[in-house]
Amino acid sequence: MKTKICFIINPIAGLGIQKINRNEVLAIFNKNQFEVTFKETEYCKHARLLTQEALKENNSIIVACGGDGTINEIAGELVGTQVILGIVPIGSGNGLAKHLEIPTNNIYKALQKIVTQHIEQIDIGKVNSYYFFSNMGIGFDTQVLKTYKRIKNRPMYSYIKAVVTSLFNYKNMPKIKVKVNDCNLLINPFLFMIANTNQLGYNLSLHRNAMINDGQLDLIIIKKQPKYKLVWLGLLMILKQEKYFNGIVHYVTKNIEVEQLINTPYYLQKDGELIKMEESHISVNILDKALNVIN
Ligand SMILES: Nc1ncnc2c1ncn2[C@@H]1O[C@H](COP(=O)(O)OP(=O)(O)OP(=O)(O)O)[C@@H](O)[C@H]1O
């Protein structure tokens, strides 16, 4: 029986710079072995609906062609199924693909990975009712994303511009109560991020030892810092020397509870998508090896 594969393509991911050529894809997959179909997203979040269709059509592999946002929408629909996720990273940051060592600037090589079908089971993060596959946060990263999304051209330069602009506009988070492992914290940090991978996108990282299949999440907290120290951290991150920054508090855990003490809406980001939150309580858990991914 042929293996049914559906490619779901986000044509605007990564500014649409890397294009998927359907004929090239078809040429790679042997017709006697694979039945290949394509779907293209036409609007924001359309990938979810297209994945539901692809599931009804009994595809056994669904390939997300896009960045972390597209992967999140597609993979979220695959949780609880045996369907395998493939990734052709054509987004901007491509954090998850970089962690999984899927080639990010060579579509052909990424497609070859799908032909080979080496499958890994990965953990999934869950925050309230949302899934995340790479990371989530409620601090400075949400401000960066708000700025970043306003900038039209989006690759690395815009990201750095968004970080620098946000650094001067960002006020620390309001106080939160945090329960992690056996610790109860009362903090108003600069950054509060929970990661499933060791990637923040663009090969930047604050937690290079994080693994996607260890059944653990990495909580990274950066307390309030003078701005010059944060600029120093940015430089260290670019040089991949962030370990020399002594203001990072790091927990490895399965569960994190957060309580917002001020009753105003706030933003949460999951895999680069901003969500306006009304709930004051956030519960974050790990689902152990809950998704099959080709890497
Ligand atoms: N046809 C479309 N028109 C407008 N938006 C779309 C369309 N298709 C998908 N989207 C939206 O595009 C957004 C960005 O996609 P994605 O995150 O994959 O790319 P990226 O931001 O370039 O990459 P990364 O997240 O890795 O930095 C997603 O929120 C998705 O819902």
Description:
With 295 residues, the chain is α+β, with helices and mostly antiparallel strands. It folds into two domains: 3-117, 3-Layer(aba) Sandwich (Rossmann fold), CATH 3.40.50; 130-288, Sandwich (Tumour Suppressor Smad4), CATH 2.60.200.40. The protein is 27% helix and 33% strand. It is built from eight helices and 16 strands. The chain has helices spanning 22-28, 46-56, 68-78, 95-99, 107-116, 140-150, 156-169, 227-238; strands spanning 3-9, 34-40, 61-66, 84-89, 119-127, 130-132, 135-137, 176-180, 183-187, 191-195, 217-222, 248-253, 255-260, 266-270, 273-277, 281-294. A six-stranded antiparallel β-sheet has the order 6-5-16-13-8-9, covered by helices on one side. Helix 2 packs parallel to helix 3 (68-78) and helix 6 crosses helix 7 (156-169). The radius of gyration is 19 Å and the shape is globular. Bound molecules: adenosine-5'-triphosphate. Adenosine-5'-triphosphate binds at residues 10-14, 41-46, 66-70, 73, 91-94, 201, 272-273. Pfam families: DAGK_cat, YegS_C. This is DAGKc domain-containing protein.
What is this structure's SSE topology?
Layout lengths: L2 E7 L12 H7 L5 E7 L5 H11 L4 E6 L1 H11 L5 E6 L5 H5 L7 H10 L2 E9 L2 E3 L2 E3 L2 H11 L5 H14 L6 E5 L2 E5 L3 E5 L21 E6 L4 H12 L9 E6 L1 E6 L5 E5 L2 E5 L3 E14 L1
Parallel strand pairs: 1-2, 1-3, 3-4
Antiparallel strand pairs: 5-6, 5-16, 7-10, 7-14, 8-9, 8-13, 10-11, 11-12, 13-16, 14-15
Helix pairs in contact: 2-3, 6-7
The structure holds adenosine-5'-triphosphate.
